[in-house]
Amino acid sequence: MRWGGNLRKLLPAVFAGAVFAQMPPNPVELTREGMDAREAVQITPNIYQAVGFGNTYLVTTPEGNIVIDTSSPGPAKLHVKLLKEKSAAPVKYIILTHGHGDHTGGIPLWKEPGTHVIGQKNHVDFVKYQARLNGFFALRNAAQFARERPAAAPAWPGNEGAKIEPDILFGDRYDFTLGGIRFEIYATPGETPDHLSVWIPQWKAAFTGDNYYESFPNIYTLRGTQPRWALDYVHSLDKVMGWRPELVLPSHGRPIRGADEIARRLTRYRDAILYVHDEVVKGMNAGKDVYTLMREIRLPERLVVGESYGKLSWSIRGIYEGYAGWFDLNPATMYDSPPSSVYGDLVKVAGGPEGVTKLARERLAEGQAVEALRLTEAALAADGANRPALEVRLRALENLRDHCQNSNERGWLDYSIGETQAKMK
After folding, report:
1. Position with higher pLDDT, 354 vs 145
2. Of residues 161, 160, 166, 173, the one with CA closest to residue 98
3. Residues 6+ apart with CB under 8 A from 412
């Protein structure tokens, strides 16, 4: 069975190549693997894009081709077919903007004898980190993306167990020329520590990976991640803007054309990230706790970039805890008893799950769905099979999902809805 019950409306239209400002009213139900277009789009005489959740780009030259990002294993099969119809010349280089699976999954399909794979030097540590937590991420990804739950935890490969695909690794910059075209590759950390961007000065074209898409970025992703440093995004976007590109090709979404439009979009994106970072830091220095900052910080209208993939509140907490860690000055937090360890006692003092469930029902009727969730969590700690509490919990989750405009939030709500429905059975 799928986690999350009904296949939730997984991802907004950006990753199919459409406008990403907000979720459409009735988004199509799609899995990550099902979001790939059935054609390859010619962007310029020498650049082709296979559109999908993760785009694949083919750059042709008289001496052979370059592939930039390779999508996930499933979509990559289609991408290879579509792009090789445009040019069957040998693939001389594969360039990985970073080590996420929706960018590296198609490497075996593209790699030929003599093909070089290029990555930034932090790629090695990053893919080892991902492999080290392969079981953890397998469960989280199954939940968030409505996939089949693994039948068994994958074997732990150890701390160093990861396949390193790149045979060319660089620090700050790597250049090469193929077919008379110069390719400049720069370290641009942000989405990941190994992130890179590709600059073709002859065509004024920049391939920016995941450091820009049309939503506030996933500075913290709910499936779990190492800290993503907001100032890395800022400095990397500054670097790209310094090239004055006239064509930007992100790994998710449509290309952006025109120097002025690119400058406008990337400047707003950079400034939005910097604003949130600075407000968090100011709040920390003023002694404010993370929940206060999650409630208080809002982007000014001129910097609103949408929250259909990344979300401000998660990013605020990610920045806060990335700087300071988990301790919140509460002495109880120092010990191994979680808050839920006393939920049953509090419910008992309150007269049992019935009274707490009644209060949860009232909170939900008042539009406080999150508070209702908290109360049902307490009631179910006292009686995990309490039917009325499960019913209120289900209604609260469905209420939050019905008002949700963020694809990742929707994924976790659908997962929790499925879990609650299973308990009710």
Report:
1. 354
2. 166
3. 143, 144, 222
